[in-house]
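Exercise (ungraded).
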Amino acid sequence: MKPFAYHQPDQIPDAAKLLTSIEDSKLVAGGMTLIPTLKQRLANPPALVDLSKLGSLKGITDGGATITIGAMTPHAVVAASKLVQTKIPGLAALASMIGDPAVRSRGTIGGSVANNDPAADYPAGVLGLGATIITSAREIAADKFFLGLFETALGPGEIITAIRFPVPLKAGYTKFKAPASRYALVGVFVAKFAEGVRVAVTGAGPGVFRVPPMEAALSSNFDPSAIAAIKIDTDGLTSDIHAEADYRAHLVTVMAKRAVDAALS
Amino acid sequence: MGNVIGIGAAPKRKEDQRFLTGRGNYVSDIKRPGMAAGVFVRSPHGHAVLRGIDKSAALAAPGVIAVLTGEDVKADGLGSLPCGWGISDAKGVPMKEPPFPMLAQGKVRFVGDMVAFVVAETPEQANVGAELLKIDYEVLPSVVGLLEAVRPNAPQLFDDVPNNICCDWELGDKAAVETAFRKAAHVAKLSLVNNRLIGNPMEPRAAIAEYEPGTDRFTLWTTSQFPHVVRFLMGALVLNIPQHKLRVVAPDVGGGFGVKQFHYGEEAVITWAAKRVRRPVKWVASRSEGYVSDRHGRDHVTEAELALDETGKFLAFRVNTLANMGGYLSTFGPNIPTNLYGPLLGGVYTTPAIYCNVKVVFTNTVPVDAYRGAGRPEATFVLERIVDVAASEMGIDRVEIRRRNMIPKEAYPYQTPVLVQYDSGDPMGCLDGALVAADVKNFGIRKAASASKGKFRGLGYSTYVEACGLAPSRFAGRLGARGGLYESATVRVHPTGQVTVMIGTHNHGQGHETTFAQIVSEKLGVAFENVDIVFGDTDRVQFGMGTYGSRSLVVGGAALSKATDKVIAKGKKIASHLLEAAEVDIQFEAGKFSVAGTDRSKTFEEIAGAAYVPHNYPLEVLEPGLEEQAYYDPVNFTYPGGCHIAEVEVDPETGTVTLVNYTAVDDVGTVINPMIVEGQLHGGIVQGVGQALFENAVYDEGSGQLLSGSLMDYCMPRADHLPMMKVETHSTLCTHTPMGVKGCGEVGTIGSPAAVINAVVDALSHLGVTHVDMPATPNRIWRLLQNASLPVAAE
């Protein structure tokens, strides 16, 4: 690990100011990606701005038709939340599948969404539920937030403070875990709303994406059989030592069917 | 006073007191006064000319003490890393043995090859210094695959090793095999890959070296399975340090699996550096560094053919293998795919003619050497796979074809056509036991239950034998070993009767401190808690060969048994004097020396006391003291064997293979501690299952980059991958080891890959699938199903 300055502000504007005033400085939330990167000397930020003292970023609030989760809320808290389990059980299930217990205790929803790892779980939940990302500056719809491999719509100095999820009629998440890393080789989040169904896929490509043909099919018939014959184009999907693109494409359909099953159960 | 806890008991492990309370003493726990930190700079290229290294910026960096390179090694006239085995081809031409410099000279030959060593005040400063080195590489094309490496126009690692072939080795009667093939009613053929593995012991490698100018002595603390061998190889052959001036300590070591049974360049560099900088120097590998520098295992490409008569009797077996050595010859490298592979191709069968050709090949990859099982899992995999292929092609039941060819119990000792003579065994008994334990007769019911869920269920058998207890030195010497393979033990009885044992093996997870204490407790009748086992320090322990090849109990335990017998013999002499009886009338039993037919006796403690306070003692005929030493060189290998049965369920939708049941019935000879044996079997089986289903070291052809260079990419087996295992023993006694022991460290790893893959193939056989290469990953299974000759549908 190379040396860096360390700041622990207790106000969001202070954090944003540090982030913009120190070039190449990095936010640290749970640190589940950043700290290993620093330890491997792959990143060399001059300063870290730790968000852990920002109490307002923690916690889950019930908004009736929505649930709002503070950016610094660890996965384990979301997984164990009675509110989330009751209103969006698919999201609680997703949080319970991330990493291992140590990661779930430290890793945060804001950190995961801001990092936008192509194989992370939360982006599928956020996009699948059509959530709203609330930042220090504005609100961003999930559909406009994820821009591809580790890229998001966040601007300089912009900090995610919370994510607001609409409560669906039904939702489910299933992932095929990469055998070694247990990241999503393919993960599919399915959510049914009165106005239609959303299907979001993580792990299969360079970033989370929706599958309109599946959404259309499930909107008219929310049953696994409705999408069993829908094949995903392999173009643009990831091919690596763990899985070839056509296998990932195949898994999208299998995982989507199982996610619908999970939503129905 | 504690109790005798002897052979067959299962006390909790003595060593766990310190391990489970965080009081182990590993190399990275050790701090020496004035200790500096070292970092190795490794090649990022698979193959390159090393044109020059500019040290100036690194040397100018804060805290940097020294930067050492291959040029400095050359200037100091140091040796190259030795290979402990010299094999030859059929004409007796010795293998090509290019030098393996401890820091690269002229060329780098794999990603991870060591180029420089930077010593600084702190690890951080050493890292900064390392990043400031300017290394001029002329990158060359790499070759990593075996088939690619032997092609005529392949990149050449060494100018004087044409086609990258180190040795074209063979074993067996080629002509007899050809004759048998001409007469065969059926010939089964199989092409397979034995996947490359990375051992991943829990504790990464580490070393600390210190030089004391006052005594001109060196001390090296290293994560090694064989400190004496490191002292010998490094001192005598690399650094020219006299043996009495070099102490090598391997303290608590967190797992080895073979990875730590080699003399590594890091050990030599750090020892040399410690004298140059006149400071103790410490290096601890990161996990990532381990991936590109710990010796890898396996990596074969094989074509096998089995000739059978019309009844399914094996007539002859022919095997042609390409075996990967990586960029240089490691300590045991060329021995593994040859001497530890070919002689095991007979398995538990009466195959009368066997021929094996192995081309040992250099590639731009980490050197390949022994990994748990070492050669024997590869042999078992080829044989047990092709037996299934033959059974399937001839329409003979897989168990039946094995029975028809098995060596009957009464045929032991059994001379195979490939050098080795099995002393004892009962493969049929192991098979019968395993069939019952695995509830094979109800497999159909379980298969139907899986089918009703849309899953394919399969059952796989592996009946195997291995050569353990490495090794009879005379035999090994004929095969090319450049050292002996005996073991040593000293039993020191203290004046109060407690016992300290100094043994040449090394305990790094096997439970030796418990097992060996049980042997002493049983034989001397002393309390289990009154026996301590000392190992891993060349200043405290007489020369020993260390721990590998399932040898510690077989060879080390035999030396210990012999030394204990010498203690008893001396004790009898002392007792005969004290009890005023003839020595032949003294009996020793349950810790008491007594005169036969009388009630006169002396306890073991009284005899020990007399030996050290010799007021009334036969000084004319006997020296005081009670300490005995023995060396033991085995007359033969031992041959543990057994039958493993794996049961898998395949999800045809995702290709996922789930191991649902696992049964092992093994013949490991006498069992000293059944709990430890069971643990060894569990661990071994898990590593074999890892090879079969999960683990794969993957290199990029051309660049030579290791693509599976982290735990995120290289899948180690985990608890949730495994079912509860049923492990039983069905032992016959080894006829030539003192206690009848055969060894159990590697059996699990040897029997399991074939059992698992045979089960996977069985599950998919109705689709026309005849073979699956390891690891049977979901992607690979799905691909097979896509290409299956018959339509995929649950029965």
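Further reading is listed at the end of the chapter. For now, observe: Chain B has three domains: 16-22+486-632, 31-140+202-255+260-291, 296-470+636-786. The mean pLDDT of chain B is 97.
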